[in-house]
Design brief:
The structure is a single chain. The protein has 414 residues and is α/β, with parallel strands linked by helices. It folds into 2 domains: 224 residues, Glycogen Phosphorylase B (Rossmann fold, 3-Layer(aba) Sandwich); 158 residues, Rossmann fold. Helices cover 36% and strands 18% of the residues. An 8-stranded mixed β-sheet has the order 3-4-2-1-7-8-9-10, with helices on both faces. It has a 6-stranded parallel β-sheet with strand order 13-12-11-14-15-16, with helices on both faces. Strand 3 and strand 4 form a beta hairpin. Helix 1 crosses helix 15 and helix 7 crosses helix 9. The longest helix is centred in the C-terminal third of the chain and has 17 residues. The protein is globular and about 65 Å long. It starts with 5 loop residues before the first strand and ends with a helix.
Length: 414
């Protein structure tokens, strides 16, 4: 580290006490690693949180060195802060009180782009490091880079293409949107991408290559789980999905793939769903999932386990053989991939984006053609008979970097 005594403020769009998304967890774990680093004088965590009163711009202590921010976005197309005037004074007070030398921004959704400018206005010497978790600056469709309505993959952005996806916004609107993002991004001193795939997407969009580096999110440095004990004649036939249940995460593909098999074939498979937020999806999506789920649960090949807390992950993975990630969008660096590898479980994932990058087909996991329900069913059936092949894939896993290693890599940037 070149400059001992850094004071680092980590900002996030949510606190893992209330929001268990991958970005929130990555931000919080990095904050804790900064706090433990011997060359860091002080570390702080600021998370946006809705306390039910709307975006007042106020700050509240959560615990020592952790703060909640009542903030929101008033214009999602332009990512404009809901309360810029009310926020300016409060943010200035907090920054002057904490005296950070670095602000590590883990997101701007729910908070707005303007607060990047506010940080530099308060103290231009503060270095801003930003970790990009998805493609929101590039794509207005929730940063997924898939076509609305059809969920076809999007391979590039342009004002013309974006206008065809969202005709209510003109070509000029999208041109201005991109330049608004880029103007605020010029305030960032260093960008971090958790995957090479995401890094290249942002280089293609306009970030200079020398301004963005790849650093994987850190993981706990615990022991690898032993293999699941097998009864006599049993195979490695237990699969598990962990994560959000929404149209982009591919749970419907898993269920459709399972349903496409013969009943005698389904008896060889057990699929567990460890997920949350189905109730927040559209009625059409919920109805589709429930229609697929019922018969499979009745047969016993599907077990709907439900939401989980981070500390429960190891216990749940201990009971399965494979972790599946059937997302239909590019992903970046899904937290579940690194969690599975750190616990010694091979991955089965879609063959695109960050999933294809992080999972090496035939070495530590298996790729499945994206969006192909039939291929998912056939893959689950084929892998359910594996024992020696599972052992080989498990042996091919490289343990992800630790939280401490991740913090060290970030500090080398500054």
């Amino acid at each position: 580290m070149r400059n001992p005594g850094h004071r680092i403020l980590v900002t996030s769009h949510g606190h893992p006490d209330f929001h268990l998304g991958g970005g929130e967890l990555a931000a919080y774990n990095l904050y804790k690693a900064y706090s433990a680093h011997p060359d860091v004088e002080a570390a702080f965590f600021l998370a946006r949180h809705d306390r039910g009163r709307g975006p007042t711009g106020a700050f509240f202590p959560r615990r020592e060195n952790e703060f909640l921010w009542e903030q929101g976005v008033g214009d999602w197309f332009r990512m404009k802060m809901a309360t810029p005037r009310g926020t300016t004074h409060n943010l200035a007070e907090l920054i002057r009180h904490l005296r950070p030398t670095i602000v590590h921004v883990h997101h701007y959704v729910h908070m707005g782009l303007e607060y990047l400018h506010m940080i530099k206005q308060i103290d231009p010497s503060i270095r801003i490091v930003m970790t990009l978790h998805e493609y929101i600056a590039i794509c207005f469709n929730q940063g997924q880079m898939v076509k609305p309505g059809t969920n076809r993959l999007c391979f590039r952005e342009s004002p013309d293409d974006c206008n065809r996806c969202f005709p209510q916004h003109s070509i000029e609107d999208f041109w201005l949107r991109k330049h608004r993002y880029q103007s605020f991004f010029r305030l960032v001193d260093q960008f971090v991408a958790p995957s090479d795939f995401l890094r290249q997407r942002y280089i293609d969009w306009g970030i200079a290559p020398e301004r963005i580096v790849t650093i994987e999110n850190g993981q706990a440095s615990g022991e690898i789980l032993p293999p699941r004990p097998l009864a006599e004649g049993e195979t490695r036939n237990r699969f598990a999905f962990f994560g959000q249940i929404n149209p982009f995460k591919g749970v419907s593909l898993l269920l459709q793939g399972l349903a496409s098999l013969k009943k005698s074939e389904r008896r060889k498979i057990v699929l567990e769903i460890h997920g949350a937020n189905l109730e927040e999806q559209t009625p059409e999506f919920r109805d589709m999932i429930m229609a697929l789920r019922g018969p499979l649960e009745k047969e016993g090949c599907l077990q709907w386990i439900g939401p989980y807390e981070p500390f429960q992950m190891a216990g749940r993975m201990a009971a399965v053989d494979w972790v599946v990630i059937p997302s239909i969008w590019w992903e970046n660096s899904p937290m579940v991939i690194q969690e599975a590898f750190s616990l010694g479980r091979p991955l089965v994932g879609s063959d695109i984006g960050g999933m294809a990058e992080k999972i090496t087909h035939g070495l530590d996991g298996v790729h499945v053609p994206v969006g192909n329900a039939k291929a998912w069913g056939e893959t689950l059936l084929r892998l359910s008979g594996y024992t020696e092949e599972w052992d080989r894939l498990r042996a091919g896993i490289t343990k992800p970097i630790s939280y401490a290693d991740c913090a060290r890599a970030h500090l080398e940037l500054v």
